[in-house]
Amino acid sequence: TSMEVVLYYRPHEKDLIKLQKFAEAAVKDFPIRQLPRFTPWFPNDLYRLPLKPKKQPPVISCEEAEELKQLSTPSEYVTGSSGYDCTKSLLEFQSNVKRRHLSQALTVHKPVDLDNQGEPPPNGKQKLKRSWSVSVPSPKLKEKILPLSQELQNNLERLKLHAFYRAKWTIEQSICNDQNLEDVWIKLNRLIKHNELPSCNATIQRSVGQIWIFCDILYCEYVRNILREKLSLTDKMNLLVHRFGIIFSL
Protein backbone atom coordinates (compact mmCIF):
# COMPACT_ATOMS: atom_id res chain seq x y z
CA THR A 1 0.00 0.00 0.00
CA SER A 2 1.21 3.49 -0.84
CA MET A 3 0.69 6.67 1.15
CA GLU A 4 1.13 10.27 0.07
CA VAL A 5 2.88 12.53 2.55
CA VAL A 6 2.90 16.33 2.27
CA LEU A 7 5.77 17.97 4.17
CA TYR A 8 5.81 21.67 5.00
CA TYR A 9 9.15 23.24 5.93
CA ARG A 10 10.66 26.66 6.45
CA PRO A 11 12.50 28.37 3.57
CA HIS A 12 15.90 28.13 5.25
CA GLU A 13 15.58 24.36 5.74
CA LYS A 14 16.58 23.21 2.27
CA ASP A 15 18.47 20.02 3.13
CA LEU A 16 16.38 17.44 1.27
CA ILE A 17 18.09 14.45 2.91
CA LYS A 18 17.25 15.69 6.41
CA LEU A 19 13.70 16.51 5.36
CA GLN A 20 13.27 13.03 3.90
CA LYS A 21 14.57 11.34 7.07
CA PHE A 22 12.31 13.57 9.18
CA ALA A 23 9.26 12.61 7.14
CA GLU A 24 10.13 8.89 7.27
CA ALA A 25 10.54 9.06 11.03
CA ALA A 26 7.17 10.80 11.38
CA VAL A 27 5.22 8.04 9.65
CA LYS A 28 7.19 5.19 11.19
CA ASP A 29 5.28 2.90 13.54
CA PHE A 30 5.82 3.51 17.22
CA PRO A 31 7.78 0.79 18.95
CA ILE A 32 5.80 -1.45 21.30
CA ARG A 33 7.42 -2.06 24.65
CA GLN A 34 6.63 -5.25 26.49
CA LEU A 35 5.45 -4.34 29.99
CA PRO A 36 7.01 -6.31 32.83
CA ARG A 37 4.82 -8.58 34.90
CA PHE A 38 3.22 -6.79 37.82
CA THR A 39 4.65 -7.68 41.21
CA PRO A 40 2.75 -6.39 44.27
CA TRP A 41 4.73 -4.46 46.84
CA PHE A 42 2.85 -6.12 49.73
CA PRO A 43 2.66 -9.78 50.75
CA ASN A 44 0.28 -11.51 48.38
CA ASP A 45 -0.72 -14.27 50.78
CA LEU A 46 -4.43 -14.67 51.50
CA TYR A 47 -3.71 -16.77 54.57
CA ARG A 48 -1.40 -14.18 56.12
CA LEU A 49 -3.10 -10.82 55.69
CA PRO A 50 -1.25 -7.77 57.06
CA LEU A 51 -4.46 -6.50 58.79
CA LYS A 52 -6.63 -8.70 60.95
CA PRO A 53 -9.67 -7.95 63.14
CA LYS A 54 -8.83 -7.59 66.81
CA LYS A 55 -11.86 -9.62 67.92
CA GLN A 56 -13.65 -12.58 66.47
CA PRO A 57 -17.11 -11.98 64.95
CA PRO A 58 -20.09 -12.64 67.27
CA VAL A 59 -21.71 -16.05 67.11
CA ILE A 60 -25.49 -16.32 67.40
CA SER A 61 -27.06 -19.63 68.29
CA CYS A 62 -30.17 -20.99 66.58
CA GLU A 63 -32.27 -20.38 69.71
CA GLU A 64 -31.20 -16.74 69.99
CA ALA A 65 -31.80 -16.17 66.27
CA GLU A 66 -35.32 -17.55 66.64
CA GLU A 67 -36.01 -15.22 69.58
CA LEU A 68 -34.81 -12.18 67.62
CA LYS A 69 -36.96 -13.26 64.68
CA GLN A 70 -40.04 -13.30 66.92
CA LEU A 71 -39.20 -9.85 68.32
CA SER A 72 -38.78 -8.37 64.84
CA THR A 73 -42.07 -9.77 63.49
CA PRO A 74 -44.19 -6.78 62.32
CA SER A 75 -47.46 -6.26 64.12
CA GLU A 76 -50.83 -6.20 62.40
CA TYR A 77 -51.78 -3.06 60.56
CA VAL A 78 -53.96 -0.81 62.71
CA THR A 79 -56.76 1.00 60.94
CA GLY A 80 -58.37 4.22 62.12
CA SER A 81 -57.34 7.80 62.74
CA SER A 82 -54.20 6.79 64.66
CA GLY A 83 -52.77 4.76 61.77
CA TYR A 84 -50.65 7.66 60.57
CA ASP A 85 -48.14 7.21 63.43
CA CYS A 86 -45.57 4.94 61.79
CA THR A 87 -43.46 4.67 64.96
CA LYS A 88 -46.20 3.11 67.10
CA SER A 89 -45.25 -0.52 66.37
CA LEU A 90 -41.46 -0.05 66.37
CA LEU A 91 -39.71 -1.47 69.42
CA GLU A 92 -37.02 1.18 69.55
CA PHE A 93 -39.68 3.88 69.98
CA GLN A 94 -41.42 2.16 72.89
CA SER A 95 -40.98 3.83 76.28
CA ASN A 96 -40.20 0.64 78.23
CA VAL A 97 -37.55 -0.68 75.86
CA LYS A 98 -34.09 0.43 76.96
CA ARG A 99 -31.12 0.55 74.62
CA ARG A 100 -28.82 -2.39 75.10
CA HIS A 101 -25.62 -3.59 73.53
CA LEU A 102 -25.78 -6.46 71.07
CA SER A 103 -24.56 -8.96 73.62
CA GLN A 104 -27.27 -7.88 76.06
CA ALA A 105 -30.00 -7.81 73.43
CA LEU A 106 -29.31 -11.43 72.56
CA THR A 107 -30.12 -12.52 76.11
CA VAL A 108 -33.68 -11.13 76.04
CA HIS A 109 -36.18 -13.94 76.63
CA LYS A 110 -39.41 -12.06 77.30
CA PRO A 111 -40.98 -10.23 74.32
CA VAL A 112 -42.28 -6.71 74.78
CA ASP A 113 -45.98 -6.46 75.47
CA LEU A 114 -47.20 -3.91 72.95
CA ASP A 115 -50.83 -4.21 74.02
CA ASN A 116 -50.21 -2.54 77.40
CA GLN A 117 -48.37 0.50 76.06
CA GLY A 118 -51.34 2.82 76.56
CA GLU A 119 -51.94 1.84 80.19
CA PRO A 120 -50.56 4.15 82.90
CA PRO A 121 -47.56 2.85 84.87
CA PRO A 122 -48.19 1.48 88.37
CA ASN A 123 -46.35 4.36 90.08
CA GLY A 124 -48.85 6.87 88.67
CA LYS A 125 -46.36 8.83 86.54
CA GLN A 126 -47.51 9.34 82.96
CA LYS A 127 -44.72 8.86 80.41
CA LEU A 128 -44.29 11.40 77.62
CA LYS A 129 -45.80 10.39 74.29
CA ARG A 130 -44.02 11.81 71.26
CA SER A 131 -43.92 11.17 67.52
CA TRP A 132 -41.37 12.33 64.96
CA SER A 133 -41.57 13.25 61.29
CA VAL A 134 -38.42 14.02 59.28
CA SER A 135 -38.12 15.53 55.79
CA VAL A 136 -35.62 14.81 53.05
CA PRO A 137 -33.83 17.55 51.03
CA SER A 138 -35.50 18.68 47.82
CA PRO A 139 -33.55 20.87 45.33
CA LYS A 140 -36.76 21.95 43.56
CA LEU A 141 -37.71 24.38 46.34
CA LYS A 142 -34.66 26.61 46.01
CA GLU A 143 -36.33 28.78 43.37
CA LYS A 144 -39.29 29.49 45.69
CA ILE A 145 -37.19 30.54 48.70
CA LEU A 146 -37.10 34.33 49.07
CA PRO A 147 -34.37 36.29 50.92
CA LEU A 148 -34.89 36.79 54.64
CA SER A 149 -36.72 39.89 55.79
CA GLN A 150 -34.67 42.87 56.92
CA GLU A 151 -35.92 42.56 60.50
CA LEU A 152 -34.78 38.94 60.76
CA GLN A 153 -31.44 39.77 59.14
CA ASN A 154 -30.88 42.53 61.70
CA ASN A 155 -31.65 40.11 64.54
CA LEU A 156 -29.21 37.54 63.17
CA GLU A 157 -26.49 40.17 62.87
CA ARG A 158 -27.14 41.44 66.38
CA LEU A 159 -27.04 37.95 67.91
CA LYS A 160 -24.21 36.81 65.60
CA LEU A 161 -26.24 33.85 64.39
CA HIS A 162 -25.61 32.06 61.09
CA ALA A 163 -28.48 31.46 58.69
CA PHE A 164 -28.02 27.70 59.05
CA TYR A 165 -28.69 27.69 62.79
CA ARG A 166 -31.61 25.44 63.73
CA ALA A 167 -34.73 27.22 64.95
CA LYS A 168 -38.13 26.08 66.22
CA TRP A 169 -41.72 27.09 65.47
CA THR A 170 -44.34 26.04 68.03
CA ILE A 171 -47.96 25.19 67.20
CA GLU A 172 -50.43 25.27 70.09
CA GLN A 173 -54.14 24.51 70.22
CA SER A 174 -54.93 28.22 70.50
CA ILE A 175 -53.77 28.97 66.92
CA CYS A 176 -55.25 25.87 65.25
CA ASN A 177 -58.46 27.66 64.21
CA ASP A 178 -60.95 25.18 65.75
CA GLN A 179 -58.90 22.20 64.56
CA ASN A 180 -57.81 19.25 66.65
CA LEU A 181 -54.08 19.18 67.33
CA GLU A 182 -53.93 15.59 66.08
CA ASP A 183 -55.56 16.62 62.78
CA VAL A 184 -52.98 19.39 62.37
CA TRP A 185 -50.23 16.83 63.04
CA ILE A 186 -51.60 14.57 60.26
CA LYS A 187 -51.63 17.48 57.78
CA LEU A 188 -48.11 18.48 58.81
CA ASN A 189 -46.87 14.94 58.21
CA ARG A 190 -48.27 15.07 54.68
CA LEU A 191 -46.45 18.34 53.98
CA ILE A 192 -43.16 16.90 55.20
CA LYS A 193 -43.72 13.64 53.32
CA HIS A 194 -44.15 15.55 50.04
CA ASN A 195 -41.04 17.69 50.71
CA GLU A 196 -42.96 20.97 50.93
CA LEU A 197 -41.07 22.07 54.06
CA PRO A 198 -37.31 22.26 53.39
CA SER A 199 -34.84 21.15 56.09
CA CYS A 200 -37.71 20.44 58.52
CA ASN A 201 -38.27 17.79 61.13
CA ALA A 202 -41.20 17.91 63.53
CA THR A 203 -42.41 16.30 66.73
CA ILE A 204 -45.71 16.35 68.55
CA GLN A 205 -45.42 16.74 72.32
CA ARG A 206 -48.76 15.33 73.42
CA SER A 207 -47.93 15.75 77.11
CA VAL A 208 -47.82 19.56 76.73
CA GLY A 209 -50.22 19.89 73.78
CA GLN A 210 -47.70 21.34 71.30
CA ILE A 211 -46.18 20.60 67.90
CA TRP A 212 -42.56 21.62 67.37
CA ILE A 213 -41.24 22.27 63.84
CA PHE A 214 -37.44 22.54 63.56
CA CYS A 215 -35.86 24.12 60.48
CA ASP A 216 -32.86 26.16 59.35
CA ILE A 217 -33.26 29.89 59.92
CA LEU A 218 -32.58 30.34 56.20
CA TYR A 219 -35.97 28.73 55.41
CA CYS A 220 -37.94 29.72 58.53
CA GLU A 221 -40.06 32.46 56.94
CA TYR A 222 -40.89 30.27 53.96
CA VAL A 223 -41.84 27.44 56.32
CA ARG A 224 -44.03 29.77 58.38
CA ASN A 225 -45.93 30.95 55.31
CA ILE A 226 -46.54 27.37 54.20
CA LEU A 227 -47.78 26.44 57.68
CA ARG A 228 -50.17 29.40 57.73
CA GLU A 229 -51.54 28.58 54.27
CA LYS A 230 -51.75 24.77 54.40
CA LEU A 231 -52.70 24.31 58.07
CA SER A 232 -54.99 27.36 58.39
CA LEU A 233 -53.17 28.67 61.45
CA THR A 234 -54.10 31.98 63.08
CA ASP A 235 -52.21 34.55 65.15
CA LYS A 236 -48.45 34.99 65.33
CA MET A 237 -45.90 32.27 65.94
CA ASN A 238 -42.62 32.79 67.78
CA LEU A 239 -39.30 31.56 66.37
CA LEU A 240 -37.02 30.21 69.09
CA VAL A 241 -33.32 29.35 68.97
CA HIS A 242 -31.67 27.31 71.69
CA ARG A 243 -29.87 29.50 74.27
CA PHE A 244 -31.20 32.67 72.60
CA GLY A 245 -34.94 32.33 73.15
CA ILE A 246 -37.42 34.11 70.87
CA ILE A 247 -35.59 35.91 68.07
CA PHE A 248 -38.47 36.61 65.68
CA SER A 249 -42.29 36.62 65.46
CA LEU A 250 -44.34 36.14 62.35
List the helices and strands and how they pair.
Blueprint: H1 16-27, H2 62-71, H3 102-105, E1 130-134, H4 150-159, E2 166-172, H5 181-193, E3 201-205, E4 210-216, H6 220-231, E5 238-241, E6 245-249
Antiparallel strand pairs: 1-3, 2-4, 2-5, 3-4, 5-6
Organism: Chionis minor
Region (Disordered): 110-130
InterPro entries: Shieldin_RINN1 (IPR039996)
Tell me what the structure shows:
With 250 residues, the protein is of the alpha+beta class. It has a domain of 100 residues: Alpha-Beta Plaits (2-Layer Sandwich). The protein contains six helices and six strands, in the order αααβαβαββαββ. The protein has a six-stranded antiparallel β-sheet, with helices on one face. Strand 3 and strand 4 form a beta hairpin. It is elongated. The chain starts with 15 loop residues before the first helix and ends with a strand. This is SHLD3 protein.
Write out key terms for the chains shown.
about 250 residues; alpha+beta; Alpha-Beta Plaits; six-stranded antiparallel beta sheet; 6 helices; about 25% helix
What is this structure, in a nutshell?
The chain is an alpha+beta fold and 250 residues long. 24% of the residues lie in helices and 13% in strands. It has helices at 16-27, 62-71, 102-105, 150-159, 181-193, 220-231, and strands spanning 130-134, 166-172, 201-205, 210-216, 238-241, 245-249.
